[in-house]
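Encode chain A's predicted structure.
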Amino acid sequence: MQLKRLELVGFKSFAQKTVLDFPVGITAIVGPNGSGKSNVIDAIRWLLGERDAKNIRGAKAEDLIFAGTPQRPRMGLAQATMIFDNGDHFFPVDYSEVSVSRKVTRDGTSEYFLNESPVRLKDIVDFFAKARLGTRGLTIVNQGNSDIFVRATPKERRAMVEEVLGLRQYQLKKHEAERKLISTKFNLEKVKAMIDELTPHLRLLRRQAAKWEKQADVEKALHDLEAIYFGGRLFDIEKDLKDLEPRINALDKETNDKRQELKERQAELVKVEKSGPKGDQYFQDFKKKQQDFLNKKSVFQKDIGRMEAQMEFLVNQPKSEMKAAEAVKLLEETREKIGEALEENDLAGLKSILRELSDKIERVLSVGADNREGKVQELEKSKEKLLADLAAVDAELGQLNSLEDKLAEDLRGFNAVFKKAFELVEQKKDEIQKLENEKNRLLFDQERVNIRRQELHNLAAQASRKLSDFSAKELTGGEDLAELEKRMFKLRAELAGIGDLDPALVKEAQDTEARYNFLSSQMEDLDKASEDLRTLINNLDEKIHGEFTSAMDSINDEFDKYFKAMFGGGKASLKLVKEEPKAQLTEEDVNMENAEGNEGDGLEDADEGHKVDHGGLEVFINIPRKKISGLEMLSGGEKSLVSIAALFALISVSPPPFLVLDEVDAPLDERNARRFSELIKDFSKKSQFILVTHNRATMEAASVMYGVTMGDDGTSRVLSLKLE
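Encoded structure for chain A:
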């Protein structure tokens, strides 16, 4: 793997697009102070995943964007790109050339690209960690940090060593697993708390659900029992209706036949009535006529008696004066009137005439006895006339009486025939009535059956069922309907005892049970995930510990060798020391780290202070002809030499793809600077070096030199020089 090129646009002082090509070996970047040399190193560190602006000499992300000068306006974004030759597939991707880009805008938005595909910062850090590159080791040493290895804490030193050894990828995985484990534990506690909170309510709901389940069983049993009961009763009802229907139809037919016979008998009766004697009106008229004649006879008898009395009076009253002519005349007039009255059957007129006659006779008699004899004779004649009329009336009455006897005889014969015909009619009426009574009885039975059906319908309705839901079935198993009904009432009473269950409560029970099962499943999954994470952490610990401890002997050997070379003797070593226990993570910390990790931020901070460690590295040295009790007693140059010795020890054991050093040689004297340049030449066969330097000896070791200058417009420009 080789870093081929670095492209800068709007990054700090590099306003215009700037391209730096890096050959194999050593590339030196030189230039006056303030020209922008270190900005190249800052760009590389930024691309490797640095998120703390202070480590790239800024206060905030916006400081990475060209701020503008009086001659040139400021820019809206900064972008940097590193391009690698991956022909040997040093990077675990299927590309022969790999580009890593990063851009930031003035609103603080940061974007990352791997071969122009958007990625997270976490992806970038993991990508470079697998290549033994990062921002926490000695791969990049910024200006003024030549003694960084000495100034670092034991824990930081170990992180530097692990990064060079390629163990940082495992530390990142371990840290991620630890974060996940802690998060899983928090989640597990939350799930347990939710289960604990849910359990009492679930018990109550389960009791309700048990009732609901029992209710369902009882309802099913009742449903099945109702099917048998209502089906059996329905079968009996329909059977009774079927039995009654033909009987009613037969009675209807017989009744219709009897009605036809009745009509025939009634027709015969009408014929008998028409063939019989005259009707009642005739007899009434006959009786009336007969009575009229009887009345006439009575009147005549009374008038004759009155005339006889008058005649006797006239005979016995000689002194009485009577005018014979007037009496005769009076009798003649009276006779004519009596004849007219008899012809008209006017008995009332006849009486009136006789009264008038009597009055006139009295008047005549009152006249005197002169005509008494004449009047007596006239009265005698009138009496004879009346007696003749009376005899005529008697004769007429005799005829009427004879006719009455005949009519009575005829009527007796007619009545006998009529009675027989009438009795036949009444007989048929009785027979029809009996048939209708029988039909009515059957209709009553049919109505009772229908009432039974309606009662059955009402019973079904009370059970919230429809009678149409049931099919008629014959009970062949000896089922007792009364016993079935008792069992139904018992089941309904049991349902009533259970009571009405709120559908919402039932649904809540189902939902709560489902949630409980889900949480229980989640807890099992979290338990398993926790166990898997612990296993993964243990495996990573073993791998890290194994590779680290196996490399430490070689590193110490090399460290001691290069220390002696730098100091002309002495002794140096790195030893593991116990670190202070790490602070306990809180749920808020984990949530914040997870959130930052999802955004691609916070990974580096998360790696510090939050991982299980096996101790840090302490530096133990012995400088010739100088007694020291601690690293703080070393001079600045001595600290730089110790750090450089450690650097060369590390890269000799595990050479990284490239190293970026910013004026690391500045504190060195000429002798050590020369020795430093020779070591770099030697190590450039294994690793690529990019150096910012003012040292002539270092420049002479470079194969390519870039000169950085600051233009009149306040922007950095690069000139390149290839050295033979």
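Confidence is low (pLDDT under 50) at residues 583-587, 592-612.
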